[in-house]
Automatic annotation (TrEMBL):
Entry keywords, A to Z: Repeat
Protein name as annotated: WDR64 protein
Xref: SUPFAM superfamilies: WD40 repeat-like
UniProt keyword annotation of Repeat present: yes
Gene coding for it: Wdr64_0
Entry keyword Cell inner membrane: no
PANTHER family in the cross-refs: WD REPEAT-CONTAINING PROTEIN 64, WD40 REPEAT DOMAIN 95
Amino acid sequence: ALELMDFKNALEQFQNLVEKMIIQKTIFFSGLYTKDDDEIDYEKFYKTTRTLFGSAVQDQNIQAFFRKIMNNLDERPEWLEIFVFFRGESDGMSSQSKESMVLLFFEKQQVTHSVVKRKDVIKGMVKVPLLHLTVTASQKGVLTVFSKQRKSFFSYFFFFFFLDTAWINGCDFLPNLIYVVAVTESTIILWDYNSKDSTSDGFVIKPMKNCLLCVCTVTMADDLAKDTILMGDDKGYVYLLTITSDDFIMKQSKAEKVSQFKVLDSESFDIPKRKLHDDWVGRIKYFPALKRFGSCSTDSINSFVLDDIKRLEDHLPVKEFSVPKGVNAFTYCGKAKVIVTGG
């Protein structure tokens, strides 16, 4: 309790220090301020902050906080930022976790083995908390699964495919079938990263008529033998595809073999689709808490759609709204019960 009271007192003094400094600098830039011994420059700000919080703050964070105030006096940074400013790789911090008097945080750990080659970029990343996995997909065709339970933090499974020249545009994880799903301009890739059969790593569904730009998994626990995915293309269409374990058994007998992947005809699948936007579908995501999917586009009229996946099959009106020049990104916060979009 005494430590808590001491911290509250230190925090109050720190906030008063910041407020006083902002007032001084505002008056100074207006040309009315006359320097005196009470002026708060960086040296005084540093010494006072260090006295108040001791080793709980780092030198570079004090400097970054001061610089942020100086660059924009109208935008007051939050006090907790002085404890958790982002650190670069060269900050000399230990790779082990560090605990301060305020926050418990973990330093980032670098993956020393290169995931992608030069002139390649990561196009998709998804975390799978239940399995402690992180999946990434690179533009030129590298799918990678990082496992936290091996090699202390990461282990890697590399997969290069040369089925066509199309780039990968997104990826996700199928939790029931335990497959990685990725989309290229004309194909859907299903990778069995756990396969112990060296001659069968997964399936490719092709051809898709339009260019696929994004993909996400619909998380539902009603059937452990199937997974549903949503996809968006460059014509404004959103697709709904349900894949069952039976599909792998029944359809692969007719499948053409390419490398270690079996190619399945897209015509053999029931893939409902609906045009929701008049431009590219930039991102698509399913929110289990809302039981709704969201899709966005740079379309200024049908910029963002939020509705039940049933709307992709029954063609009833969908809930949508418009944003000038469209929406590029969006997310949902369950605690605040708000959806935030970025244009």
